[in-house]
Amino acid sequence: MKIAICPGSFDPVTKGHLDIIRRTANMFDKVIVVVMHNYHKPNSYFTADERVELLSRCTKDIENVTVDMHEGLLASYAKEKGAVAIVKGLRAVSDFDYEFQQALTNKKLSPEIETVFITANSDYMYLSSSVVKQVCEFGGDISDFVPAEVCDDIIQRIRERNSRI
Ligand code: ADP
Questions:
Q1: Is the CB of 95 under 6 A from ligand 1?
Q2: What is the pLDDT of residue 161?
Q3: 84: DSSP letter
Q4: Is the shortest distance between the CB of 81 and ligand 1 below 6 Å?
Q5: Which of 2, 36, 50, 164 has the fewest CB atoms within 10 Å, i.e. is most exposed?
Q6: Cis peptide leading into 12, omega within 30 of 0?
Q7: In which element (H, E) is residue 162 found?
Q8: How far is 86 from 106, CA to CA, in rounded Å?
Q9: Are 35 and 69 within 8 A, CB to CB?
Q10: Where in the sequence numbering do the catalytic residues fall?
Q11: Residue nearest to atom 16 of ligand 1 (CA)
Q12: Is the pLDDT of residue 160 over 90?
């Protein structure tokens, strides 16, 4: 069984993320979407549990996808799960330097695991979790940016956070 890992912060999940997850699910037997979190960096808008819940809700119709969270090295996690690939989405040249460095580091740590890059869907090339947060904070419509089944919860959560600060 060929297992792929789709890692990210998913703070929160966007339609761009979901597009990469679906396309990965078409290529591998099993996909583990993993929310990477770090207790020493508490600046995320959504807790790791919330991010897992939102992702689980919008991937529930994709049979071979499960959602998990991990704190620590991605290369060790992927090895422990028996994955053959780490799959990342590439939006633009600006993603490349960072992703290339990560891929080479992971290759060094776990040589048996390949990093696979999927080109972003042209509809979502501009999209990131930061864009979603910025637009929503200023009252803009994010329904084109995030999956419909989680849109209201994301809006509510970002507004709650804004009212606290
Ligand atoms: P971000 O905070 O930039 O949205 P994440 O760290 O959560 O990104 O991203 C997880 C993975 O999804 C990364 O491989 C990233 O390149 C990819 N990704 C994020 N947004 C998109 C998008 N709009 N299209 C394609 N891939 C994307």
A1: yes
A2: 82
A3: S
A4: no
A5: 164
A6: yes
A7: helix 148-164
A8: 9
A9: yes
A10: 17, 41, 91, 129
A11: 89
A12: no
Joined together, the tokens standing for residue 83 give: 């994955």
Instruction: Read off the pLDDT of residues 94-123 as tens digits, 9 standing for 90 and up.
Output: 888 999 999 999 999 999 999 999 999 999
The CB of 120 under 6 Å from ligand 1? The reply is yes
The C-alpha atoms of residue 106 and residue 49 are separated, in whole angstroms, by 25
- Rounded distance, CA 10 to CA 49, Å? 11
Candidate of 17, 36, 101, 126 to mutate for ligand 1, largest count of ligand atoms within 8 Å of Cβ:
17
Determine if ligand 1 sits within 6 Å of the CB of residue 45: no
- Fold of the 3-164 domain: Rossmann fold (3.40.50)
Q: Strand, helix or coil at 56?
A: helix
Domain boundaries, the chain: 3-164
**Mean pLDDT value of segment 139-154:** 96
Task: Calculate Rg over the CA atoms of the chain.
Answer: 16
pLDDT band at 37 (very low <50, low <70, confident <90, very high): confident
Query: Global pTM?
Result: 0.94
10 Å Cβ neighbour count for 58?
21
State the closest ligand 1 atom to the C-alpha of 89, by its place in the atom list counted from 1.
26
